[in-house]
Design brief:
about 290 residues, alpha+beta, 14 strands, about 20% helix, elongated
Length: about 290
């Protein structure tokens, strides 16, 4: 299930006090004055995804739907949204505000298996054995950056039911348990950038906004568990290029003084900024990249 709050924060929140203490709630918010009215927004979004999934059973699995909806959630309305390595989502706004549009595009990007290099959006439903892990690759090409990376895993909590005593004094005891999973973003073959590792929640989340964008290079999302578990992972990101990123990759011999946007170091009449826009090489005379009239 998914716990829903309201976008103005006017709901109970923070850590749970029963049935496993300290779990962060709500997990997502929607724009309405009351949780009773906000919750149907999320229900409707899940129904839309189920319809869009068609005959794809994995795409409409309850774990997949939850991972997609939470990974798609929009944090932009909340300037004070935050997380810690042991609290994967905000204690007021959860993963953020419901974004049906983004959720659809995550689902539509399709299932991508562990061990593959990920597209900008996607999801996977997979299983792990005890004390095992899956790796997912992220590749950022030269001249580009990757911002607004939202990656999230979720899995089911297990609750056992036992009867104590008998007759009129019998009572039912529910005992929750949850696999201890983690989600780590690291430089491939190198250092850890961020780890989400809550001891009590059944989700982990990594968020890298524009200010914490990934530069060119290869990265790994590592999913690990201490117990056998089925989980879903979903992600979204934005590959982008600005002038500074392009400049760092485009110039090899040009002096720094000739690398400004208005400079034309190859004397082909195309300023560097236009070379970037048209996909030209600023160190090679290449007027053929200019648009032409037909």
């Amino acid at each position: 299930g998914i716990t829903v709050g309201v976008s103005d924060g006017g709901h109970s929140g923070g850590g749970t006090l029963t049935d496993g203490t300290g779990r962060t709630k709500p997990e997502i918010v929607a724009p309405n004055a009351f949780t009773s009215y906000a919750t149907p927004y999320v229900t409707g979004a899940a129904a839309m995804l189920i319809e869009a999934a068609g005959s794809d059973a994995d795409a409409k699995d309850q774990l997949t739907l939850k991972a997609i909806l939470l990974a798609a959630a929009n944090k932009a309305p909340f300037a004070d949204w935050d997380q810690t390595s042991t609290r994967p989502i905000d204690d007021i706004y959860g993963a953020g505000q419901l974004d049906v549009y983004e959720a659809y595009f995550i689902q539509d990007a399709g299932q991508q298996s562990a061990g593959s290099t990920l597209n900008e959006r996607g999801w996977n439903l997979a299983s792990l054995g005890s004390n095992s892990s899956h790796n997912y690759g992220i590749s950022v090409p030269d001249g580009f950056g990757l911002r607004n990376l939202s990656a999230l895993i979720t899995w089911n909590r297990e609750v056992s039911r036992t009867q104590q005593g008998g007759g009129p004094f019998a009572s039912i005891v529910y005992t929750p348990s949850v696999a201890d999973m983690s989600l780590e973003l690291k430089v491939s073959g190198g250092s850890t950038i961020y780890t989400s590792d809550s001891a009590v929640d059944n989700l982990e989340h990594i968020w890298r906004d524009k200010a914490n964008a990934l530069g060119p290079g290869n990265y790994t999302l590592a999913v690990a568990t201490d117990d056998a578990v089925e989980y879903a992972i979903a992600w979204r990101s934005e590959l982008y290029q600005d002038y500074d990123l392009w400049k760092a990759a485009a110039f090899t011999t040009t002096p720094l003084a000739d690398q400004d946007p208005d400079d034309d170091p190859d004397f082909d009449g195309i300023a560097n900024l236009l070379e970037q826009a048209f996909g030209g090489n600023p160190e090679t005379h290449d007027r053929e990249v200019l648009p032409t009239m037909q």
